[in-house]
Amino acid sequence: MSEKTIPILPCRALRPVLDFYTALGFTVTFEQRSPNPYAVVERGGIQLQFFAMKQYEPAGSYSTCYVLTDDVDGLHEAFRAGLKAAYGKVPTRGLPRLGPVRDTSHGMRQFLMTDPGGNCVRVGCPTRADRHHLPAPEETFARALHLGALFADSRDDPAGAAKIIDRVLHLRDERPTPVQLLRLLVLRADVAERLGDDETASRTLTRAEAVALSPDERRSVRDDLDRLAELRDRGAAPAGTVSDP
Q1: Which of 194, 227, 233 is CA-nearest to residue 208?
Q2: Distant-in-sequence, close-in-space partners of 17: CB < 8 Å, separation ≥ 6
Q3: Which of 12, 38, 118, 124 fits 56 for a cystine, CB–CB 3.0-4.6 Å?
Q4: Neighbours of 172 (CB within 10 A)
């Protein structure tokens, strides 16, 4: 036996959704305008189907699906390049938007993208056999990173993530390691950018630039440094680099 699951996702109008997925490298393999607007897009082994409803509100959508891939970083880079070519930049807030690649606490390396119809498509590959969420760490800053990432991505609550990070960054009796500080600052700048708070994003990225990291530490936070560069590319702050000691 062989089975295949194909998500059928809602939208208000087909054309903005189809243009978005075409920018990502998908091909429109079917489009019906009447009596019921319906379309299919495909890219490699990924197939998504859409139906349109005039009364649908994309901003209030809870529709989501998961795409498994064996090259999450390659797909993310291809999507980034396609969106930049089509939109002149990579959208990271509002609709549509594309999030960063992250290693999650439930054994996946993934990114989230939300199309013009408000559908959240999660794209990822497993990093371990166990898919259960790891328990939140006890250590203060590791716990803040764990919960901040969950709020920012899994719950799509950047404001909640900002509160978690701001609280630990203002502690007076505890200090994070340089790696923890860099990761906290980049995540804080990330959620500030999503919230449209460009002033906080700029200020926080400037702080992140001042964090001194050894070569080994830089390698351990490669994803975070890549995200810092992405935020720089969007003009969140003047160009700069994270310094080595």
Answers
A1: 227
A2: 11, 39, 50, 115, 116, 117
A3: 12
A4: 5
pTM of the model: 0.83
Q: pLDDT at position 236, please?
A: 43
What are the angstrom distances between the C-alpha of 32 and each of 25, 46, 125, 160? Answer: 20, 20, 33, 41
Angle formed by the axes of helices 198-209 and 178-194, nearest 10°: 160
Task: Please name the amino acid found at residue 211.
Answer: V
Number of other residues whose CB lies within 10 A of the CB of residue 77: 12
Please tell me the predicted confidence (pLDDT) of residue 130: 80
Q: Which two tokens stand for residue 211?
A: 């964090």
C-beta separation of 242 from 214 below 8 A = no
Starting at the edge strand that comes first in sequence, how are the strands of the sheet with 27-32 ordered? 8-11, 46-52, 38-43, 27-32
3-class SS of residue 163:
helix
Query: What gap in Å lies between CA 107 and CA 131, rounded to an integer?
Result: 5
Spatial neighbors of 161 by CB under 8 A, at least 6 apart, are 147, 148, 149, 151, 152, 187, 191
Confidence of residue 235 (pLDDT cuts 50, 70, 90): low
- Nearest-angstrom CA–CA distance, 217 and 205: 18
Q: Which of 54, 45, 44, 39 is nearest to 8 (CA)?
A: 39
3-state secondary structure of 100: coil
pLDDT tens-digit map of 157-193: 999 999 999 999 999 999 999 999 999 999 999 999 9
pLDDT in tens, 70-123: 999 999 999 999 999 999 989 988 999 999 999 988 899 999 999 999 999 999
